[in-house]
Design brief:
Layout lengths: L1 H11 L18 E8 L6 E6 L16 E5 L4 E3 L1 E4 L2 E3 L11 E8 L2 E8 L11 E7 L7 E7 L10 E8 L4 H6 L6 H8 L4 E9 L5 H6 L4 E5 L5 E8 L2 H12 L25 E7 L1 E6 L4
Parallel strand pairs: 1-15
Antiparallel strand pairs: 1-2, 2-6, 3-4, 3-7, 5-6, 7-8, 9-10, 10-13, 11-12, 11-14, 14-16
């Protein structure tokens, strides 16, 4: 028994050697592409940067002066560099489901390409469930709240990116003038001249991801009720290849080291040619908009 105790003490008091991380301050300077086209009529954006060292405090360097085009078999859009590293289509551009989009980037005597198919959402989403409840702040009158029951993270018919926004009514100033019992959070939003009081985005997974169970928390949120508040939901379709890319990124970031289930470390493999990092996607957007009854 004494020998075991002595051994434990020896192990606990042994010196700890510092292992040098080779290459932690080096960068390959590889092109990184981030962009998408959707069915929304808007200026669609492609962002170009260079890869950075592992240890880095500053933002990635933008890639300027590139020739960027986005094409189908019917039309080719030439993107303009609206700010360093940000390339956009005209604001009248929109995507069509069933089309395949070809992204081409020419910069510094190199050409990079990506192809993305725009598939339908593949599900019929229902408006988010809203429950009315009451909330009693300390030393304040009881107030009504809206509780949003978000779609579950797992078990979706198809993979999708999901976004939910809570937007104050544009006549909120009139409500204040009429003597509405204004909570502190609403006054803060008015001071910031912002109508969006909540904005959350996450992915809907077809299967169960064990490490993600530890990463995701509750699937509901309570907000003080304001008459005329809008609940806006957006569903973005994803191909299987796009979902696998997102899943690999999450495996190396949010899900990394959570629970007893792990993944083999590695770079997320995107769809950009010529060794570039990143992903170019095409998504149908299905939008739901509701105003809860007072």
């Amino acid at each position: 028994m004494k020998k075991t105790i002595y051994l434990c003490i020896l192990l606990l008091t042994s010196c700890i050697d510092t292992i040098e991380w080779e290459g932690q301050n080096e960068a390959s300077g590889t092109l990184v592409v981030d962009g998408a086209i959707t069915t929304d009529t808007t200026a669609h954006t492609i962002r170009l940067t260079r890869s950075q060292p592992v240890i880095q405090d500053s933002a990635p360097d933008p890639v300027t002066g590139a020739d960027v085009t986005l094409a189908t078999d019917r039309v080719t859009h030439v993107l303009s560099e609206t700010e360093p590293g940000i390339y956009q289509t005209d604001s009248s551009v929109f995507g069509v489901t069933g089309s395949t989009y070809h992204l081409r980037i020419a910069v510094e005597n190199e050409v990079y390409e990506a192809f993305a198919e725009m598939v339908p959402l593949g599900m019929s989403p229902e408006p988010v469930e809203i429950r009315k409840n009451t909330f009693k702040p300390p030393n304040l009158p009881e107030r009504e709240v809206m509780e949003f029951i978000y779609p579950p993270n797992f078990g979706s018919v198809r993979p999708a990116r999901y976004r939910i926004m809570v937007r104050l009514p544009e006549n909120v100033d009139d409500l204040v003038a009429a003597g509405y019992d204004v909570p502190r959070w609403l006054l803060n939003q008015l001071e910031k001249d912002s109508f969006i009081v909540s904005d959350s985005t996450y992915y809907l997974h077809p299967g169960l991801e064990p490490p993600a169970i530890f990463a995701y928390g509750e699937t509901n949120e309570s907000r003080l009720s304001v008459p005329g508040t809008r609940i806006i939901e957006e569903y973005y379709s994803m191909t299987d290849e796009h979902y696998e890319y997102v899943r690999s990124v999450l495996s190396e970031s949010e899900w990394r080291g959570l629970g007893p289930f792990g993944y083999i470390p590695g770079n997320a493999v995107g769809n950009i040619s010529n060794g570039a990092f990143g992903y170019f996607s095409a998504s149908q957007v299905v939008r739901l908009d509701q105003v809860p009854e007072p």
